[in-house]
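Here is one chain, start to finish.
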Amino acid sequence: MMNKHKLQFFKTCALLSILFAGTESSAQEWAMKKAPLMTKWAKDVSVTNPLPEYPRPQMVRKDWLNLNGLWEYKSGKINDKAPLGETLPGKILVPYPVESALSGVMKHHDRLWYRRLFTVPTQWKAKNIILHFGAIDWESEVFINGRSLGKHQGGYDEITLDITPYLQDKKEQEVIVRVYDPTESAGQPRGKQENPPHGNLIMYTPVTGIWQTVWIEPVQNCSISKLRITPDVDGNRLKLRVDTTGMGGNVTVTALVKDGKNIISKGTGKAGIELIIPIKHAKLWSPDSPFLYDLQIELKSGSKNLDAVDSYFGMRKISVEQVGDHKKIFLNNKFVYNLGFLDQGFWPDGVYTAPTDEALKFDVQIQKDFGYNMVRKHIKVEPQRWYYWADKLGILVWQDMPSANSYKHNPPAVDTLQYRKELERMVESRYNSPSVVCWILFNETQGQKAKDGTNLTQRMFDVVRAKDPTRLINAASDNIYKDYIGDILDYHSYPGPKSIESKTMATACGEFGSIGLSVKDHEWVPDSGVSMIMLKTKKALEDTYEGYINKLAEFKSANGMSGAVFTQLTDVEQEVNGFLTYDRVSKVDIAKIKVINERLIRQDQIRENSLPVGSVPK
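Its structure:
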């Protein structure tokens, strides 16, 4: 008689085979699918209003319309004609990717068509209408009322389109989106996606199509298009540039800095030119005190109001400084040891897309609860609201560039030009977030060499340094090619951390851990967990981790190491090496881990109190 674990294994395999078969459902009605695991937030997903929060917290307009919800869809083929005016056979819940249970489809398609009708509010008639897609993976083409607005390539980029010339004088407008996603068969950035996924090769379910919020908003002919917010802690000032689009004549910008209801500073100047706004006696942003100033920005032409947006910023400085014989990471001119999870940002029910904003917040808050002050966002760029929660809750972010050709045998050549484009877009789009303190350009050689074999490290380092001279750069995490370029030198060591020394760069253990523990009823595929080492009890997991932290304390004292990254926050599909299961249930005593972590981070204070690092008081 077949035991229940084997039966569950075969059921899961059958489910995954359906997921990657690519066949079209004949069902006309929408229903949420059930993945092998679902999070507690799946039940809170609204079919009529999923992810209702304004998706761009650092450039908020009051008037907007969320286009998330049920869209029509069908699979596509190369050279398909746009299905203009056609009712498509399937229904999909946007913005959950087509492979996800939350989308109601849970099938993979290389090519897709999306369609929906929408109505522009009558009070917006005299204004330009801007259509936004938070991100579409990977290539997309948008049609409004039958007219193409062009093609976009990039799976992690916001797409912004002025659709005003394409709108018709009728109640309902038609938007159609064509999608093509080659996943691992081309050389574009894709992170940990592979079709089909290979859990034993730490590659996961791919993401195709719309996976972030879609919305429209009205603007004047001349409006604010972009903000560049640069805190200058040493200069007691904020640098602010407000870029505009359209023709508005002699336009001026006024920016108010607020601490709660109190206006503490003001800047006025021309659009497109950097404003210098004094910030006296600044409240500095840090993980211990993540204070954020509010920023209100108005665009005017003479006395006429053209646009207004709300934003925020944090006053913080990140740098590498000399301390004795070592370079160390400083935050706000003080040494801060950076200790964090490797966080891949995958969800069992939403794949790349968190079920709700509360779920997104949970993933940041729980890392703080564990006592970490940093997170390495691993080869994925998150929606803007994830960075908002990192800013608001207070955690340092080491942001990876999504890899090209991750762990693929005989991979296609890296599309170097596309990699550079998406790298620049990542840096530009997340520049204003105070939590982001470090850019990681390459991970374990993935995509690090061009088609001709040229090492891209120095070239991409120069690109990012020119784009953003204010943050640290970890040019090659694990440094397999021995590229001593950038601000941080890190090596990966599994399962336990290892010592690293450098006289010219700050050092860190960029990855360590992978300590596995399976939890019954919380496994993607029962009895098939993948990890570097497997343990059997919660206590064994906690004790092993504590031993690793004690090692890091030695490296911090003896070798001046500045940080470490533990693999990882959650299980992901067949990987069972998270402190949380894939559906976000803790495997360890969170309070105990917090004590261990905080004693490493605050090691100097521990020494003064004569407490051994990593020990937990009775």
